[in-house]
Each structure stands twice: as C-alpha cells, then as structure tokens.
Amino acid sequence: MTGLRYLGQGEFIPGVPARDLSEDEAHRFRATIDEHRSNTGRALYGDLAAEPAEQATEHTNPAEPKAAEAVKGEGRPRGRREQPHGE
Question: Which of 3-7, 9-13, 54-58 shows the lowest mean pLDDT across its residues?
C-alpha cells in the first residue's frame, strides 16, 4: 500500500486531513474514505503513485444532473415575477 493523493479541491471528509496522506495515514483513514466514496460517488483521494490526470475525481450517477437542475430551478424564469395587470 502507498500513500494517497488528495483530489478533493477543497471538499473534505470530517476527521480526515484534506491533503496527501502518508502510507500510515492512508491505512488509518481507509475505511472512512471508502465509506465516503461509496455514499457520495466522489473520490477525494487517489493512489499517490498514479498520475493525477489519470484519476477520476468524481463518479456521477446519471440521475444526478437532472436532480441538480430541479434543485437549481432550471427551466423556470429568473428575476421578478410578473404581476397580473390591473384593470
């Protein structure tokens, strides 16, 4: 086992340092990191020996973009609501 490279770009897991981890730290935090990745689909750490460009930082669910759009209110007009015209 080797250390782990931090890929989180500011995102973090509570209790786990948001930086590259040594081999000892990687072993200590492995279960927490794996659980976070399983629950969120996001990989915040990758193999330290691999090139950063080769590692995916996010594994998305195809349904997520649609859900995110709904939350953001995509498709709805922005700005002031139009008020009914009085007579």
Answer: 54-58
H/E element, 71: helix 64-72
Strand segments, DSSP code E, in the chain are 4-6, 45-47
pLDDT band at 43 (very low <50, low <70, confident <90, very high): very high
C-alpha span between 25 and 80 (Å, rounded): 52
Q: How far apart are CA 31 and CA 68, in angstroms?
A: 28
SS3 call for 86: coil
Calpha distance 7→5 (Å, rounded): 6
Q: What is the dihedral of CA 64, 67, 68, 71, to 10 degrees?
A: -160
Q: Which contacts of 53-56 are long-range, i.e. CB under 8 A and separated by 24 or more positions?
A: 55/5, 55/7
Phi-psi region of 4 (alpha: psi -120 to 50; beta: other; left: phi over 0): beta
